[in-house]
Specification:
By secondary structure, this protein is α/β, with parallel strands linked by helices. It has helices at 3-14, 56-68, 113-126, 143-146, 187-199, 219-227, 241-256, 277-285, 297-305, 309-312, 317-339, and strands at 18-19, 24-25, 32-38, 41-48, 75-82, 98-105, 131-135, 163-165, 168-172, 206-212, 232-237, 261-269, 289-294. It folds into two domains: 3-82, GMP Synthetase, Chain A, domain 3; 98-339, P-loop containing nucleotide triphosphate hydrolases (Rossmann fold), CATH 3.40.50. The chain has eleven helices and 13 strands.
Amino acid sequence: MNNLMSKEIVLAALSKVQEPELHKDLVTLNMIQNLEILDDSVSFSIVLTTPACPLKGLIEKQARTAVQAIPGVKNINIKMDSNVPSDGRERGLLNVPIRNVIAVASGKGGVGKSTVSANLAISLAKSGASVGLMDADIYGPNLPTMMGIDHMPAPKDNKLIPAESFGVKIMSMGFLVKPGQPLIWRGPMLVSALRQFISDVEWGELDYLIVDLPPGTGDVPLSLAQALPLSGVVIVTMPQSVSLEDASRGLEMFRTLEVPILGVVENMRGDVFGAGGGENMAKIAQVPFLGAVPMESGVRVGGDTGKPVVISNPNSDAAKSLQAIAEQVAAQISIAAHHNKNTPLINII
């Protein structure tokens, strides 16, 4: 059997393996790369649409099983790789590629939106993605404290250089004002600062930029949607009715702005605030339910000490929930990119 025919047989076997989220086979999706055959050994890469793919292990197992079924194959070497697709939106204010921009929003304050933002960004970075975190909550910039960093590098070539912590690039008004100093700004000043956070910061090339929005439905989310087209938004709520009402208003605002709703996160689930409200809200709104984060003291301690729970206690239930939510967010972004036909083409070598 010649080498070309051998490759055809391997590809035929792999064409029976489905990508569970995109519902197409690995060959059709151009996810097989660097296919090599040497005697009875087969090696290839599976290029996922995100390093945070929640079904990475399943895809690898099914691909291995498919190739093992080919007569004569004894050794299989699979490399799991990733290439995050862009959402295809034009972001003219940026001079470098930011493939996807994910806003994290809530209808009211105090629901743990910044906590979710920080842990989401770190979880994606831990998976191998290139991640930035922009603190768009100009009046209440908490992310420097939560990420354990209080300053940023000196500017370079007339550009602000973002701080970096836990593999995440960070920009926040908290780096630019004295601790405790109030910002008494009107809407136009907020919008101007937001635009500078976009255009005057040397973000570099990013797979994901996570934007922690201020609570509510005011100037900042409206301006952000106009200045920096969003790949989608994650809505954070607590389980009780009052929080759900506010979160629902925020969700509908983004729908009005035609921003894709990636899903709902129910934070602080437990005896004090109840459970299930966020899941019900997602069902009513007909959007994905990304997961629930249990109420644990370690989440608060992690934020207060500058070591978010996915770093300080990664085996806790809360950390596992947040890591799983990050995977679901990445999966939703990949699905949206595929449906928009922006999946990068990968040539089989």
